[in-house]
TrEMBL record, chain A:
It comes from the Eukaryota. One of its GO terms (cellular component) is voltage-gated potassium channel complex. It comes from Solea senegalensis (Senegalese sole). InterPro entries: EF_Hand_1_Ca_BS (IPR018247), EF_hand_dom (IPR002048), Recoverin (IPR028846). Belongs to the recoverin family. GO terms for molecular function: calcium ion binding; potassium channel activity; potassium channel regulator activity; transmembrane transporter binding. It is found in: Cell membrane. The keyword Phosphoprotein does not apply. This is Kv channel-interacting protein 1 isoform X2. Residues 85-120, 121-156, 169-204 form the EF-hand domain.
Automatic annotation (TrEMBL), chain B:
One of its GO terms (biological process) is protein homooligomerization. It is found in: Membrane. It is a multi-pass membrane protein. Residues 525-559 are annotated as: Disordered. It comes from Solea senegalensis (Senegalese sole). Keywords: Ion channel, Ion transport, Membrane, Potassium, Potassium channel, Potassium transport, Signal, Transmembrane, Transmembrane helix, Transport, Voltage-gated channel. This is A-type voltage-gated potassium channel KCND1. Belongs to the potassium channel family. D (Shal) (TC 1.A.1.2) subfamily. Kv4.1/KCND1 sub-subfamily. The chain crosses the membrane at residues 180-201, 221-241, 253-275, 320-341, 353-369, 381-402. GO terms for cellular component: dendritic spine; neuronal cell body; postsynaptic membrane; voltage-gated potassium channel complex.
């Protein structure tokens, strides 16, 4: 009988514990962030007021609290790629957007990055891409980092592709490109090498201009 | 693609810049925005209540009324608003669906009016969010049951063309259908009662012969009781055989619980008939008579409540098992304690632990017969603890069982989760299908889009050869517009394909290509055969097409300078595939050699693209040649993607 009473009392204690944790979670999500004023943002970025309004409306719709955390970011990005797994690439993207490494993206970060990507100069775009590829932020891209990124891109394709995706397809892909980019053959690609080799390739230059008129 | 994230499409497209430096191939052209349309507010007037929203919000779901051009039918020129003569309360939920991407079902709303509104606005109920879906399905089921009950009340008329067997079975199952059935029902009920009472009265001692002790009636009026028993058993046997005859599935009937009860009820009598002569087994024969009491279970055919009770007990098995287990635990503990406590006292009835079990059970259930009582002080102390805890241990699981009972009873009444499970599976299948629709939409649009490109590039000489009818059909197909959002999304996916130099295909095609990649290793023989087959062999079957792998290689250098070896192969294939879907006449295939020349002039873009593929040339002809005729659509995609 004592056992029975004991088990019942233990269970009730557990319930309390769960409630406390839920309260904590609730408190965290109540944190709200408001962006700076429209005028400041307009000055900071290359967007005009109307575009900022449209962007903010979309942003706030998905993230009512005003910040995006990595989970939400991954979910949103994965919706565009239903075939494969976009979470790894979304992770790298998240780190690239989150310049302050704070674990969440505020609207200012979001809109600054978009401004660079859509309205920035070629050099700025390439610099942003270099930051994206440089996973550990040491200023150099080595082969492993590039392989990681390329593998993340291939993951987005999913399983059903033609021709059938082989396991070393990312590696082969990277081999071809790394040789091209690493001019002084020291095993890492610096920012200058990167920008130089991209500027040499006409395809890349042309494709960088592709998304000029998005928004 | 969900609605809310449509606003994030610009972000996804911008992020695609990250792929550019490592892309293998040049990116496709972005879809042009037809007009830099400012986002405008539109007014929806629903029975006088005005709702306003952005036009883009409604455009998120182009396959509904509000998202498509169908709403133009409701446009009022004078007031510049869209007027709908529908329920404004339900419209709130509909509009919120566009805004948030989630459809909610308000509880106060009538299910049939809600369904009507949803079907008017072209929204599939399956996308109701998980928060409201259970409620929606419950209400829908209740409604359906109500309709069915109404139907059944009208359905008592006998269906024509029922065989005698079916009529009998129906009579057995529903006694109210005909008077005969009702008579049969009551007669069998009466005889079950008679049989049970007979069994009971048999053992009552009735009137004694003066110089002997009292005898039970069964032994006094043996013949009478035997006749009664025989009559009952005969009736039961006849009934069982009739049911067996009428049952639609005899095997299933024989396995059912009721039929087992029937058999067990009548079997002792027959066994008794067989065995009366043998004295040794008469003891066993007496035991068999106990089974006659099972006849009382035959009443469950006559009572719905009994059946539900039986079913409920069956489903409460786990709770009952728990009760039994906890009781057993407590009994063993206390019996052990009492045994050792009473070990010392003389003439103790607690001779062993199993003997103490009886004491523990009697005490815990507060019966207290008094045939075993503890005498030592320790025994009395533990005995009192035992009786106090007995109340608690028994009282605790009982409410669990009772609540389970009532839950199952209500559940059973509404004929329940099993049907919901099936619907759940169907719903998931439907949602999966609609989600797949979005990814197949990409593949379809690729096909359409590339028809467009190919036609543009090779318009003049080929359009002459096409019949007028087929070309207009194609044009009509192409002009079916996808929304700007969709085309941008597809452009994004297309860029990804170019980056990785692989393509999205659907599962079927993937399986095929996977299998054939395995078959490729075996099919390197007989190039001569294929070269003689020529063009006509090309279009026969997929497998024969595969044998054409060496053909372009062989003929390439023969026709053209070796420098442009890659081109004619790719271009010939291009022309082959290009022509095939557009006009299915075989004769057009014969044109391919002649038309190679003009093709070269116009499609310089294509040739450049062919050269820049980093993959070894061996694989590309495999890919090109390997084009099934049937699902040729996807192959158009592949070739011109070069």
């Amino acid at each position: 009988m004592g056992l029975v009473m004991g088990t019942f009392s233990m269970q009730s204690k557990q319930v309390n514990y769960h409630k406390d944790k839920a309260d904590d979670d609730l408190e965290m999500t109540m944190v709200c962030h408001r962006p700076e004023g429209l005028d400041q943002l307009e000055a900071l970025t290359n967007f005009n007021k109307r575009e900022l309004q449209v962007l903010y409306r979309g942003f706030k719709n998905e993230c009512p609290s005003g910040v995006v955390n990595e989970e939400t970011f991954k979910q949103i990005y994965s919706q565009f790629f239903p075939h494969g797994d976009a979470s790894t690439y979304a992770h790298y993207l998240f780190n690239a957007f989150d310049t302050a490494q704070s674990g969440s993206i505020k609207f200012e970060d979001f809109v600054t990055a978009l401004s660079t990507l859509l309205r920035g100069s070629i050099t700025e775009k390439l610099q942003w891409t270099f930051n994206l590829y440089d996973i550990n932020r040491d200023g150099y891209i080595n082969k492993e980092e590039m392989t990681d990124i390329v593998r993340a891109i291939y993951d987005m394709m999913g399983k059903y592709t033609y021709p059938v995706l082989k396991n070393d397809a990312p590696k082969q892909h990277v081999d071809a490109f790394f040789q091209k980019m690493d001019k002084n053959r020291d095993g890492v690609v610096t920012l200058d090498e990167f920008i130089l080799s991209c500027q040499e390739d006409e395809n890349i230059m042309r494709s960088l201009q592709l998304f000029e008129n998005v928004i | 693609m969900a609605a809310g994230v449509a606003a994030w499409l610009p972000f996804a497209r911008a992020a695609a810049i990250g792929w550019m430096p490592v892309a293998n191939l040049p990116m496709p052209v972005a879809p042009a925005e037809k007009s830099k349309r400012q986002d405008e507010l539109i007014i929806l007037n629903v029975s006088g209540r005005r709702f306003q929203t952005w036009r883009n919000t409604l455009d998120r779901y182009p396959d509904t009324l509000l998202g498509s051009s169908e709403k133009e039918f409701f446009y009022n020129e004078e007031t510049k608003e869209y007027f709908f003569d529908r329920d404004p309360d339900v419209f709130r939920s509909v509009l919120n669906f566009y805004r948030t991407g989630k459809l909610h079902y308000p509880r106060y709303e009538c299910i049939s009016s809600y369904d009507e509104e949803l079907s008017f606005f072209g929204i599939v109920p399956e996308i109701i969010g998980d928060c409201c879906y259970e409620e929606y399905k419950d209400r829908k089921r209740e409604n359906a049951e109500r309709l069915m009950d109404d139907q059944e009340d009208n359905k008592d008329a006998k269906l024509p063309n029922m065989t005698f067997r079916e009529t009998m079975w129906r009579a057995f199952e529903n006694p109210h259908t005909s008077t005969m059935a009702l008579v049969f029902y009551y007669v069998t009920g009466f005889f079950i009662a008679v049989s049970v009472i007979t069994n009971v009265v048999e053992t009552v001692p009735c009137g004694s012969v003066p110089n002997q002790k009292e005898v039970p009636c069964g032994e006094r009026y043996t013949v009478a009781f035997f006749c009664m028993d025989t009559a009952c058993v005969m009736i039961f046997t006849v009934e069982y055989l009739m049911r067996l005859f009428a049952a639609p599935s005899r095997y299933r009937f024989m396995r059912s619980v009721m039929s087992i009860i029937d058999v067990v009820a009548i079997l002792p009598y027959y066994i008794g008939l067989v065995m009366t002569d043998n004295e040794d087994v008469s003891g066993a024969f007496v035991t068999l008579r106990v089974f006659r009491v099972f006849r009382i279970f035959k009443f469950s055919r006559h009572s719905q409540g009994l059946r539900i009770l039986g079913y409920t007990l069956k489903s409460c098995a786990s709770e009952l098992g728990f009760l039994l287990f906890s009781l057993t635990m407590a009994i063993i503990i206390f019996a052990t304690v009492m045994f050792y406590a009473e070990k010392g006292s003389t003439s103790s009835k607690f001779t062993s632990i199993p003997a103490s079990f009886w004491y523990t059970i009697v005490t815990m259930t507060t019966l207290g017969y008094g045939d075993m009582v503890p005498k030592t002080i320790a025994g009395k102390i533990f005995g009192s603890i035992c009786s106090l805890s007995g109340v608690l241990v028994i009282a605790l699981p009982v409410p669990v069982i009772v609540s389970n009972f009532s839950r199952i009873y209500h559940q059973n009444q509404r004929a329940d989760k099993r049907r919901a499970q099936k619907v759940q599976k169907a719903r998931l299948a439907r949602i999966r299908l609609s989600k797949k629709g979005s990814s197949t939409a990409f593949l379809h649009s690729k096909r359409n889009g590339l028809f467009n490109e190919v036609l543009e590039l090779t318009h003049l000489p080929y359009k002459m050869n096409l019949s007028e009818q087929s070309s207009t059909e194609e044009e009509q197909q192409l002009s079916k517009s996808t929304s700007l959002l969709e085309s941008q999304h597809h452009h994004l996916l297309h860029c990804l394909e170019k980056t990785t130099n692989h393509e999205f295909v659907d599962e079927q095609y993937y399986q095929q290509s996977y299998l054939e990649a395995g078959l490729q290793n075996y099919s390197s023989q007989s190039p001569s055969l294929s070269s003689q087959d020529g063009v006509t062999g090309t279009c026969c079957t997929r497998r024969s097409k595969k044998h054409h792998t060496p053909l372009p290689n062989a003929s390439g250098p023969a026709h053209m300078p070796p420098l442009r070896h890659a081109h004619p192969r790719g271009l010939q294939e291009l022309s082959t595939i290009h022509i095939q879907p557009l006009s299915t006449s075989r004769s057009s295939l014969n044109m391919r050699v002649d038309d190679a020349a003009p093709l070269n002039c116009q499609s310089s873009q294509i040739t450049t693209a062919i050269i820049s593929i980093p993959t070894p040339p061996v694989t590309t002809p495999e890919g090109d040649a390997h084009l099934p005729v049937g699902p040729a659509h996807q192959n158009v995609v592949k070739v011109s993607a070069l």
